[in-house]
Amino acid sequence: MTLLDRFRTQPQKHPDPAVRLAHVGEIPLTERELIAAIAREDEDARVRKAAVAKLMDPAALGAIAQADADETVRDEAAVMLRDIALESFEGVAEQDSLDAVDALTDVRALSQIAKAAGREIVALRALSRISDPHVLGSIARHAASEAARRSAFERVRGTHTEILAVALNGEFKDTALAAVELVTDAGELEQIAARAKNKNAMKRARSILREAEEREDAERKALAAEQLVEIPQPPAAAPAVEASATEAPSEPAPEAASEPVTAEAAAQQVFAREELAEHVRLQAEAKAAATAETARRMSEQRQARLTELIENAVAAASDQDFASARKRFGIVRREWKDLVSGVDVADPLAQRFAEIESQLAAREADTREADLRARKEALGRMEQLANRAESLAARTDLSLKAAEKVLRDLRAAIGAIPPLPTKEDYDTITARLKASLAVLTPKAQELREADDWQRWANVGIQEQLCVKMEALKTLEDPEAIARSVRELQLQWKQSADVPRAQAEALWRRFKAAHDEVWARCEGYFAAQANERADSLAKKIALCEKAESLAESTRWIETAEAIKKLQADWKEVGPVARGREKELWDRFRAACDRFFTRRHDDLDRLKKTWAENFASKEALCVKAETLAESVDWDNAAGELKKLQAEWKSVGPVKKSRSEAIWQRFRAACDKFFSRYAQRHEIAKAERVAAREAICAELEGLAPAENAEAAPETETPAGLLEKVRAIRSRWQQELAARGVDPDRARALDEQFAAASARVMARWPAAFAGSDLDPETNRKRMETIVKRIEDLATSLGGAASAAAEAALTPATRLAAMLKEALAANTIGGKAEDDSRWRAAAEEVRQAQQSLSRIGQVPETARRALADRFQRASRRITERAGAAGQQGRAGAARR
User: Fold this and answer.
1) Which residue has the higher pLDDT, 252 or 193?
2) Measuring CA to CA, which residue among 619, 630, 632, 629 is closest to residue 665?
3) Boundary residue ending a domain (219, 239, 273)
């Protein structure tokens, strides 16, 4: 810092806020301490806000977001913290993102970070700062990080409503399935199975419902088996008797065999057996009758219940809420399946139930289709937003209003992306929205700064307008005052956007001066009213004349007369307000009536117009053919002839005139635009030709970075190829017009390629005009000749001795020699000798330019020697010329 800089006011301490604001825009982002100091300490909120928008220090941003006195500055700090946490800027470190999360207190911003953060640790850190169950449920449903989703879900396990919301609206398989496992209510499971966003959750809910139905069926069947009617059993002795009657031993017992059986005993045994058989028959008939009665009653009850279920199904199907209808019908369907399992149902009931089931299936299909359509529509809206944001981000004329609106839309969309058809769609649209947000955020900040700057600039403009309005008090010409007032009013409207604090005071000042000045124009306005009355009378007279000519058939004369009336109308001044449109409509109606009648007469001109159009179209084709020509002079002459011929062709139909003219003009403009740039085109062609020659030569040369290849046979005709290439190169060099820098680069490229070719196959060029060593010797011979010439012209003093002389001493010696030459009358001979020397130097320069490749080191040394010798000759020749002119002047 210089001593003067120490006394200058530093930009960040300048008393003008606008200067400080501009300085903030120029500070690089790496100056964190300076930016943080401005963001904390500057007294102007706009300057602090601009500094906050460039501050990348989370700790400083957190302090500002909590303690700054201005709400907009606090909001900007919170937005910056959120963007740092979401890595909306390039090069944001992980620790900075974590610090930004720790500094935030807004639950909504923390929720957005937990859902959309690219780093898992950042999402988890944001999640740890949230305790609201509803927000945690939203994160469990929509967070991009699996760890964040699972952690949020674990924290809402005790909240039934959030578990149900995750099961229904969760976009990811893991949390949605975990939530389904915690749902026990059948109605809720049916809702999940019908309209869950995640297909895996829908399948799992259906599986749980199916398992529950199977368990209920098994339990119901077991209960029905237990409730069967018990048939009365015979007395306890009966089985024994029955067994003795039905299963009589084939052989008598040992005791019976020992005692004789009497007839009475045998008869008793037979009677007992018959009585037992009758009892068994009656028992079987009673059991069958009881079973039939039970079956009949159960059939009647089942039929009545099925009829009730049909009514319940109809009521369920008529429910407008499909979720409720499906839940109610699901209950009916489970009971229906239990009742009809293994039983024949009357066809009308079964058919009716099938119809109701098909209706609900159709409604379910429609609901699914509507849900898919809604998801596709949501994807379309997101893609439209992404396309709009990307289009705005690429525009150079982006407005602040448009930028802020799309930023609000982007942030809202990123924070709550609606359900989309697939997970890939979600990931793609999220990435696109975040990328657009990262691009538009700094642009919007720049536009805000520019808008703030424009507002402050408008303050100065309005102050100048106030001064100008107040200065009108000194004018005397009312017309000039009125004209100036209108101009100032228009300028005021153009600069009306100023900070609110200054707007009211400036407007009152401007309005007061305006009212005072305007009062002085009342006489002028009265005179204007008189003029408007005269103009009214004149325009009424013009209307009457136009109406008298409207029915004329003298087309040309009347057309000229009406055109004259139209010109006179334009010259008449304005009339009283409220009458302009009335009079103009009247005048125009009279004119239109005549020209409408004349339109019918113009039909005969259509053929001529068509012929003229065909002629002009042919001229367009010729012009378009010549537009790409490079034969500049001939093409320019032909186009000029076409233009003259175009003028000679008559008019065409008005609706086609402009199009055909624009076509012809575009072709002419295209050629003459190329004609104006023909030198640039030729220059580009010359550059392209030199580049092609260099590329051809480089094709013969090995690569610069290639390792030395083993000796191979010299390519056939290499010397002739290189000579031909160098000949073409010399011809291209003769054609000037290439930019010096580009020409120098191409020369170096050509020389490098030549050197590589000659270094690779030196034997092919030995002894030729392209041999570097031969060329070096030729160059050295020419340089030696010029050095000898310089020495011979310099007298006995050697070149080294002469070089050691000071410029003043050398000049004195040359003057002395010139004086001696003049004295002895040798001026003419000396002049001839110096001219010969100069010609010798020029020829030597031409010879050097024709010498081929020379090693760079040797070439530079010889070139330096040649320059020194040439300079000695030219300096002495110039001095001799001056001496001769001086002597002639003295004589």
Assistant:
1) 193
2) 619
3) 219
